[in-house]
Every structure is written in structure tokens, then in C-alpha cells.
Amino acid sequence: MTESPPHTPAAVTTTEPAIRVLFNREQIAARVRELGLQIARDLGDHAPVFVGVLKGACMFQCDLARATPLDVTLDFLAVSSYGAGTTSSGTVRMASDLRGDITGRQVVLCEGVVDSGLTLSFILEHLRSRGAAGVRVATLLDKVPCRKIQVPVDYAGWRIGAEFVVGYGMDAAERYRNLPYVGVLEES
Length: 188
Ligand code: PRP
Fold this sequence. Notes:
The protein has four helices and ten strands; from the N terminus they run βαβαβαβββαββββ. It has helices spanning about 10-15, 25-45, 60-65, 120-130; strands at about 1-5, 20-25, 50-55, 75-80, 90-95, 105-115, 135-140, 155-160, 165, 180-185. By secondary structure, it is α/β, with parallel strands linked by helices. The chain has a six-stranded mixed β-sheet with strand order 5-4-3-6-7-8, sandwiched between helices. A four-stranded antiparallel β-sheet has the order 1-2-10-9. 1-O-pyrophosphono-5-O-phosphono-alpha-D-ribofuranose binds near residues 117 and 118. 1-O-pyrophosphono-5-O-phosphono-alpha-D-ribofuranose binds near residues 56, 112 and 118.
């Protein structure tokens, strides 16, 4: 199935790349609901903090939090990866840190996609240095074949290949984040 980005003026549509849908809105909602319940079972009586990695995790984090019947608080961080292209270069720096204190807290780190693992590795180190009692990693998508470094993933929506995905928070040059589905830009 392919779709055109919504809200695109008809006159521009012919120059827009088609998007092949990988996971539609219903599939995402069902899978996120499963993950939310699984996290609740695993964390029992804890009141976890869901830390979202901006910007790609924004939709997943919010939906996952709503699907988790625990006393959840939210926090956010942003990192910068240096180097052009569609994967991290290896140099990751904190661009925007947590607002709250996570000392002694159970953290669920929410990612849109884990690719090389370099971003996640850097963030896990950071969360541990901030005194988190435990960190579990939840990602909507896990690009297992792209790993450059071993990182733990506790909850994955789906494992996928090396395709460049957009939608549901994920972008191409900042576009497509608000698509309600996850798709792949088709070559024109
Ligand atoms: C994406 C994604 C992860 C990171 C994963 O973020 O959201 O944070 O890349 O890549 P890695 O495993 O190779 O390190 P991106 O840098 O595209 O920024 P964004 O979240 O603002 O879109």
C-alpha cells in the first residue's frame, strides 16, 4: 500500500515521493497497547518516568504512556548526532537535558528507532550517571541489522531492516513526523 503525504496541495503532489506504508495507524495502536500493558506487568507497583528522546520518539512516548496503566511521569531529552546522512556519525552530544531528578527512579527510555545504537548507548550512560534505579528501553522500531554497538532493547514494536522510515514522529529533513503511519519513502 502506498500513500501520499496528507495536506499536500494537488499541484505539488506529482513531485512528492510516494510513501509505502509499513505499519498503519491501527497496527501501531494495537502494538503500542500491547507494549504498554507489558511494561505495566513488568514494572508492577513502580511509578516510572517515561523519558522520550526528541524528536523522533514524541508520538510513541505519548501513546505508550497512555497505554500504560501506571502512575507515569514524563520527561524529555534531546541529543545531537554530528555528521550528515541518515545514520549517526558516532559523535553524540546532549542538546537538551532532563528537567527532573531521576535519582532512584525506574526509567522507561522511549525511542522512535534504534539504528546504529550509538545514540542509545550515549543516553543509557547518561541516565545511569543521573542515578536511575533501573532503565528499560522501549523503541517503536528496532533496526537490528544496522547495529554498530551492542545495546539492550527491552520492548520493540517491530524489528525491521535498514530501510529509512518516516512518520509517527520520524522525519526526512524534518518532514513527515505527523503522518499517523510509519512508511518508507519510495525512490522516484
Ligand atoms: C534518530 C532516532 C534515534 C537515533 C537512532 O534520531 O530518533 O534517536 O536517530 O540512531 P542511532 O541508533 O544510529 O544512533 P535523529 O538523529 O534522526 O533525530 P530526531 O529524533 O530529532 O529525528
